[in-house]
């Protein structure tokens, strides 16, 4: 099944941001990173969002906070 990537690239998700979110590749530009993080947000992939947040500024309870926000919506 053809599923467009939520990042707006007009590419199929499986050949766009999926490889970044699944850990098969890493973003080489800030734009790739931000688009993949948006896709993770849309698909509720908390693990990827936390993993791509710089540890120096990442709250220890970030995953819990994101989960709470998703629960409220």
TrEMBL record:
SUPFAM superfamilies attached here?
NTF2-like (SSF54427)
Tell me the superkingdom of the source.
Bacteria
All copies of the YchJ-like middle NTF2-like domain together span 29-69
Pfam families tied to this protein: YchJ_M-like
InterPro entries, per database record? NTF2-like_dom_sf (IPR032710), YchJ-like_M (IPR048469)
Q: What protein name does the entry list?
A: YchJ-like middle NTF2-like domain-containing protein
Lineage here is: Bacteria, Pseudomonadati, Pseudomonadota, Gammaproteobacteria, Enterobacterales
């Amino acid at each position: 099944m053809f599923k467009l990537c939520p990042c707006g690239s007009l590419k199929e998700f499986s050949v766009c941001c999926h490889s970044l979110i699944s850990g098969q590749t890493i973003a080489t530009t800030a734009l790739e990173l931000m688009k993949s993080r948006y896709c993770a947000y849309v698909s509720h992939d908390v693990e990827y969002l936390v993993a791509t947040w710089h540890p120096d500024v990442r709250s220890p309870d970030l995953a819990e906070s994101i989960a709470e926000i998703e629960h409220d919506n």
